[in-house]
Amino acid sequence: MAAAAAAAAVGGPQQSQPELPAPGLALDKAATAAHLKAALSRPDNRAGAEELQALLERVLSAERPLAAAAGGEEAAAAAGGGGGPGAAEEEALEWCKCLLAGGGGYDEFCAAVRAYDPAALCGLVWTANFVAYRCRTCGISPCMSLCAECFHQGDHTGHDFNMFRSQAGGACDCGDSNVMRESGFCKRHQIKSSSNIPCVPKDLLMMSEFVLPRFIFCLIQYLRDGYNEPAADVSSEKDLNKVLQLLEPQISFLEDLTKMGGAMRSVLTQVLTNQQNYKDLTSGPGENACAKKSHEKYLIALKSSGLTYPEDKLVYGIQEPSAGTSTLAVQGFAGATGTLGQVDSSDEEDQDGSQGLGKRKRVKLSSGTKADQSIMDVLKHKSFLEELLFWTIKYEFPQKMVTFLLNMLPDQEYKVAFTKTFVQHYAFIMKTLKKSHESDTMSNRIVHISVQLFSNEELARQVTEECQLLDIMVTVLLYMMESCLIKSELQDEENSLHVVVNCGEALLKNNTYWPLVSDFINILSHQSVAKRFLEDHGLLVTWMNFVSFFQGMNLNKRELNEHVEFESQTYYAAFAAELEACAQPMWGLLSHCKIRETQEYTRNVVRYCLEALQDWFDAINFVDEPAPNQVTFHLPLHRYYAMFLSKAVKCQELDLDSVLPDQEMLMKLMIHPLQIQASLAEIHSNMWVRNGLQIKGQAMTYVQSHFCNSMIDPDIYLLQVCASRLDPDYFISSVFERFKVVDLLTMASQHQNTVLDAEHERSMLEGALTFLVILLSLRLHLGMSDDEILRAEMVAQLCMNDRTHSSLLDLIPENPNPKSGIIPGSYSFESVLSAVADFKAPVFEPGGSMQQGMYTPKAEVWDQEFDPVMVILRTVYRRDVQSAMDRYTAFLKQSGKFPGNPWPPYKKRSSLHPSYKGLMRLLHCKTLHIVLFTLLYKILMDHQNLSEHVLCMVLYLIELGLENSTEDESDEETSVGGPERCHDSWFPGSNLVSNMRHFINYVRVRVPETAPEVKRDSPASTSSDNLGSLQNSGTAQVFSLVAERRKKFQEIINRSNSEANQVVRPKTSSKWSAPGSAPQLTTAILEIKESILSLLIKLHHKLSGKQNSYYPPWLDDIEILIQPEIPKYSHGDGITAVERILLKAALQSRMNKRIIEEICRKVTPPVPPKKITAAEKKTLDKEERRQKARERQQKLLAEFASRQKSFMETAMDVDSPENDIPMEITTAEPQVSEAVYDCVICGQSGPSSEDRPTGLVVLLQASSVLGQCRDNVEPKKLPITEEEQIFPWDTCAAVHDVRLSLLQRYFKDSSCLLAVSIGWEGGVYVQTCGHTLHIDCHKSYMESLRNDQVLQGFSVDKGEFTCPLCRQFANSVLPCYPGSNVENNLWQRPSNKSMQDLIKEVEELQGRPGAFPSETNLSKEMESVMKDIKNTTQKKYRDYSKTPGSPDNDFLFMYSVARTNLELELIHRGGNLCSGGASTAGKRSCLNQLFHVLALHMRLYSIDSEYNPWKKLTQLVEDMNSQLGNDEQPEVPILYHDVTSLLLIQILMMPQPLHKEHFTCIVKVLFTLLYTQALAALSVKCSEEDRSAWKHTGALKKNTCDAEKSYEVLLSFIINELSKGKLYHEEGTQECVMISPIAWSPESMEKYLQDFCLPFLRITSLLQHHLFGEDLPSCQEEEEFSVLASCLGLLPAFYQTEHPFISASCLEWPVPPFDIITQWCFEIKSFTERHAEQGKALLIQESKWKLPHLLQLPENYNTIFQYYHRKTCSVCTKVPKDPAVCLVCGTFVCLKGLCCKQQSYCECVLHSQNCGAGTGIFLLINASVIIIIRGHRFCLWGSVYLDAHGEEDRDLRRGKPLYICKERYKVLEQQWISHTFDHINKRWGPHYNGL
After folding, report:
1. Looking at CB atoms within 10 Å, which of 286, 1111, 1740, 1780 has the fewest?
2. pLDDT score at 436
3. DSSP-assigned letters across all residues of 240-302
4. Within 10 Å of residue 1213's Cβ, how many Cβ atoms?
């Protein structure tokens, strides 16, 4: 109804405009819309419709300026017009929205329509790079995909699914039961919701039905007006983009409409497919000038596309031939009026290439296309949808349009209409694609659409039936390829009529054909469609014609003279084309020929395939000899034929002979595949080396896993079929002739090979024999079941190397067609894998390299299933064969089965399918036996160019023959009348078993005149007796394979041609038509007197090196003959092989057994003696001497390697303490006076001296690991939701920062800088490998590195190098201080000085000014290393003073370096010293040397004795108040000082080396301060009641004897003193909350005090250990305090440990405690009177830091990925292309993002400096790998997430679920904490601040 009204309105008069105000006025749109809606709702709505029509006409044509602007000519005018067009456009859209809503609000309207959405399908459309899922368990079509939301809402546990990044875009199939099983639907789309959705009210969408047709027509007019045929210049492309940009809002508006749900989609479908609407709106060119112009543009566009508009003759009244009948008119077409000829001549680039093809037989189109105009050339648009698609193609598939068209697909009616339209435009799509500049993008967009349409079987079937989809596709493909054909140069270059595709053309090089082929493969996967294809003879003919374009493409010609100058890479294109355009459709078709009922299909394919092959042989003019020195790897017709034959026999029970051609055709068929096999051998023998690397690439690709079952397997199968049907002698001789080794197969010791250089002979002979072995033992297509094949493939791959699960999946050739059944990861794959292989879980060596989970063959697989033949067939690199043999050898050694070097084992084969029994005749033909006999003889006589491999293959063939022998004993015995009954005097019959024992006495050979045989022969011929014997023994004739083959060939030809009139076929002139055509050959007669058996026995002697080594085993053990399968013979070397063969021969016939026994009885004479001349002897000696030298050299090398290995093990082992060389520096024996160092560069040892100092190789790095410590054992979690966030307030670095700035607020700056340590962030850590070198040697080493231009992973200019001995990374040298190591022992004598004396001495020593020693080399080095240490970290981590550059800064920095190194060592020891000395951390420490350097520099800054803290610690001040008089800020109270910092200051201020007693004295004094601090902190922590109680109890005990060692007394005194200030005051209510409400018991107080003091004791003990070389005691955790205290000398030696340990007993006060405490508390009192809060905060020092950790990661990687991969960056608020997250602090950063770049630093680098002082650990979200940034370098560390098979999935390519690997994460954390990234990870590169 509405449509009719609209139609009437369109045609109706347009006079009703005046009553509407002009659009410029502010018009109340809503009111108008409501008015119109009401008018249209009336039963008689004629007037309303007209009114609306007029309004739309005007509103929508207001946008006209835009279209003009898009066309180039009026661009200037538009530019002048300012914002006009844009505004008008906005206005029009506003109008449309209002009208649709009919006066209501547009948003409410949207919501209302959505309510009626019967959404059974998801249909979400996405574009490239979107992350989607595919579940193979739920998918029916292999292309099925789900959006993340539907996937996570469905239940796919245990399914075979993966996540993937969309390449071309796609759409979600949830809810579509044609594509996936309903069980996989998500919760939203499970309900079939047609019933419960209410019916749509008529008036809701009424306006839409009126407005949308105009709107869409308007859009089409724009597209028409904006299009200008692209000229040669590229500017027009920009124009197209401009038009599209302007149309963006309109298309987006349509897209939004589609998202409103089903109700709106069905309206749109109506509008788009209604033909009446289209006709009315577009066909009125008369009335409106604008419309007329637009229609003309449309016709021009059609014409220029080489398409005709059927009615255009009527429109213009001009009669012209239709564009279809062009130059190559209807040549081969019977009955079809249309043509498959050229496009209209405007399409220039198609023209030239194909002009010359007129001569070729043209293909008849199948009967389907009746007398219709040709598929290629006609388009008629009948609806908006059709024209819209036309423009979409013209504009090369703009993304927005594609999305709009796809969004509509959930509407079933639309889906059908759109699919038909798409098919109708298929030819046009192809033409546009060919011309496109951006064919890649366009291909992706095409496939994005077509995969949605053609994956649906029902739809594909419908379109095939109604629109001739198959005809169209095949024709379009054929047509596309016809544009790039060239003449084939195969065989007969001049007269060849065959044409092939040119692989250098862009069409093939860029895979432009890919979308069309992929559609074709997609529709062939549907059974109903494939059936039609296989039944349609016309289509099959066309298709074979298409395939023949690829037959013989990319021909290689062997370069014989100089190297080819330009290596063409076209072979990639050729292999891809054959695989995609030929093989994959073939596999698709084969998958439907599985049952008997489909026999007919196979017959059809085979028939047309053979016809095409016959045509091909005729076209290239092929008779019987292939042209020399050329090869093509592409024979798709042969392979089609082979694969359909195989299928016919295997699945369809077809009789093979019924589909085979005659003998002559078989002979032709075998030639080219055989040529390829021979060429493979030639390529591997380096005969094609002048053709460059690419020819090797081709040989590899041909056998590579993705290609082999479409290339080499069918080729070998076809050869097997030919061999089973042709004469075996002919076949065998052909093989040797193709491999060019015929001349080599002579008994003579010398020969001439006319076609092969001597150096290639051996490998070509090996190639020929190996090929025969493969041909005869491979059963892939000859009767193996699919599971057996899979098992054999898997065993072969696993034998070459252990494999990961994913590489196995990749290496096992699966059927390239996804529907073929062997789906990767399918059930059978997993079950076979678990049957043949064991899983090796990933292991971690501490030395770094991370293993993946691997599968390795089970022992019984090596024992019984290892098949060298299969391995050889499947190896891409020759080294893999060797690798398999090495692994096999290792297995045999390990299991004790065979100690030596084994030969490849002989594997029994599964039985042949009866159809192929003829294949075994090859083993029983005289030709082969003669070859085997000749080769055995030559090997025995040591002729040149033979190898063990040749012997191995010869024996293999003999064994195969024995295994497959048919003859029975009985008839064999009768035929033995005597060996004389022999026709051609070689062998009597053709059975190998009987021929083996046949003795051959004399052989006539053709030899060069120079050969030794000639001269040796003359005396023999004089004796008459000899001559007589020659006559009657029947000398074997000269045997020539070539002649043999010719003879057979002629026989066959004559047989097949006898019916015809005996055509004599021309002999192709071959270089070697007759044997011995070379004049200098002469005939000689050799005496042989051997049989194959006797040769074998002699070989046994030769191999074992002993006379008479063979003794028939059955003579001892008759059992052997009864059960011959003896494991003893299954593994071994050549000797075993010979024994096995002789045993089998004896088993097969009694005669053989007897003859073997006879031969063994005659004492075998030695191998025919060779007269050794003096010259030969000389060479032999030389050989022997060489051999010995070689052995000596091997031995030396091995020794050297083992030495190096043992060194590497000790030096490189980062984490294991056992095998470590104790460091040279710390091993000091008392009798040595001076420490001796070895220089690893010059190798001299000696002491370090002032003028030639020695140094330690060290690596300086800034570290913030310490700053990451927290007071919590549990690591923080990585945030994976918006709520979780990480705040760094509780880290060690933050706490220290806060403390320092608090001190700096209230106290004097210089004093603050002595009260704390820095270096928690950006501290400098020094580590060494323990090797030393002379500093001058080091300088010259650095020079040599600088001049060495090799790419190093480090930067020499920054002072980086690797240790010359252990190659550990380093960047500085730390000078060793001269002097003895024994001094430690001298200073350690216990002294009896009193505490007071020592205190004075310390003070005096510190008071002496430290002068720099005179300018020596040593002092210079010390200075330079100090500079290095400073430059290691950034300025912000060094300067904390308020006055920049103050010396206090340097002072603070220097002692903090010592602190950082001690604290880090403590962390490496696990945070405590319980384990004592047993830790690697201390083994290679350089703290001793470091202390010397620091002390030397610190003594340059003397602390003013006024301010020296030592005084405050050890002296009482007379007048306390005097200090407070000054105006300036006070000093930091001593109780606020950090005691460990004080310790370092005191020690570094002393002259070095330090006396032990002074050290102990300093420690004792500092401990009193520490203990007082602990008590003060305790007093602040507890509540008011506790305080008063303690104050009371302590006061009572004050006068007891050891009051100063009682914590209660001291505590009560401190409380007393501190309460004088306001410290405990203003206890507000909020304070009480903060204080923990625990009741303090004496035990808990003691524990608190010990914990407070422990960190100090640990650092002090470490320091003592390094300075004085004392061992650290090990202990239990609970006794750590007491052990360390006594080790430091704080506990008197006579201390008893019975009663509970009291920490206070360690106190030894230098001055009366109560006085000094009063003095200390007084300093605080004056401060807390003003700032009680801060005073309290500074007293409570948190010192219990736990070990640092990286963030805790979730179990499943998907949780991280889903949250972060769409997360926006906080800096630039965009979603980063490469998001990363810091594993130390959880910050989210953009990797490589230019958006967040600051002063040329990208965000990751910047963050690594701020967070880790130059070390960053980032997890790359999209790749699942971890990247480490260290200073200016970075490396990929690997992944800590592995899949179920223990593999990484870098870049998430496989998309399998990943789980955290805790061990790996531990390793990563360990490397971070121990700062060993630089040493363990090897592949570093510079990042140039670009990460």
Report:
1. 286
2. 85
3. HHHHHHHHHHHHHHHHHHHTT-HHHHHHHHHHHH-HHHHHHHHS-TTT-HHHHHHHHHHHHHH
4. 16
Report d(CA 744, CA 945) in Å as an integer: 9
CA distance 38 to 48: 8
Which segments within 64-220 are labelled E, that is strand? 125-126, 131-135, 146-147, 161-165, 170-171
Q: Give the whole-angstrom CA distance, residue 535 versus residue 1241.
A: 82
d(CA 765, CA 745): 9
Q: Are 58 and 27 in contact (CB under 8 A)?
A: no
- Do the Cβ atoms of 116 and 93 come closer than 8 Å? no
Q: How far apart are CA 1885 and CA 1543, in angstroms?
A: 42
Dist. CA 1424–CA 420, nearest whole Å: 81
CA angle 1793, 1794, 1795 (to 5 degrees): 85
**Cα separation of 1833 and 1819, whole Å?**
17
Separation between Cα atoms, residue 452 and residue 506, nearest integer Å = 27
What is the model's pTM? 0.82
**1425 Cβ contact list (under 8 Å, min separation 6):** 1255, 1372, 1373, 1374, 1375, 1493
What pairs with residue 941 in β-bridges?
Answer: none
CA atoms within 13 A on the CB side of 1150: 8
Pairwise CA distance, residues 931 & 954, whole Å? 9
Q: What is the structure's pLDDT at 1182?
A: 65
Measure Cα distances from 147 to 162, 1058, 1231 in Å. Answer: 12, 69, 78
Residue identified by tokens 């030919």 is: 722
Q: What is the DSSP string of 1628-1639?
A: -HHHHHHS--PP
What are phi and psi for residue 1778, nearest 5 degrees?
-125, 85
Residue whose pair of structure tokens reads 């038509």 in the numeric block = 1073
Overall average pLDDT of the 1840-1854 stretch: 90
CA distance 1445 to 97: 69
**Measuring CA to CA, how many Å separate 540 from each of 470, 586, 602?**
11, 12, 11
Residue 1343, Cα to own-chain centre: how many angstroms?
39
Taking each helix axis from N to C end, the angle separating 926-940 and 1092-1104, rounded to the nearest 10 degrees, works out to: 30
Backbone angles phi, psi at 1258, to 5 degrees: -130, 155
Distance between CA 616 and CA 673 in Å, rounded?
15
CA atoms of 1710 and 1717, how far apart (whole Å): 12
Give the orientation angle of helix 1556-1581 with respect to helix 1713-1728, to 10 degrees: 50
Q: What is the DSSP letter of 966?
A: -
Contact 46, 3 (CB under 8 A): no
The pLDDT-based confidence of 984 (bands split at 50, 70, 90) is low
Q: What per-residue confidence (pLDDT) applies to 1079?
A: 43
Say yes or no to pLDDT of 824 above 70.
Answer: no
Under the banding of pLDDT at 50, 70 and 90, the label for residue 589 is very high
**Residues 1003, 1088 contacting (CB under 8 angstroms):** yes
Task: Give the whole-angstrom CA distance, residue 1663 versus residue 1215.
Answer: 23
**CA 679, 684, 687 angle in degrees (round to 5)?**
70
- DSSP per-residue codes, 1648-1699: HHHHHHHHHHHHHHHHHHHHH-PPPPP--STTHHHHHHHHTT-S-TT---SS
Task: Provide mean pLDDT across the span 69-84.
Answer: 35
DSSP H or E run through 507: helix 506-509
* Helices 1642-1668 + 1607-1618 axis angle, to 10: 100
- Rg of the Cα atoms in the chain: 47
Beta bridge partners of 1841: 1860
d(CA 90, CA 74): 21
Helix (H) or strand (E) holding 722: helix 712-725
pLDDT in tens, 413-423: 999 999 999 99
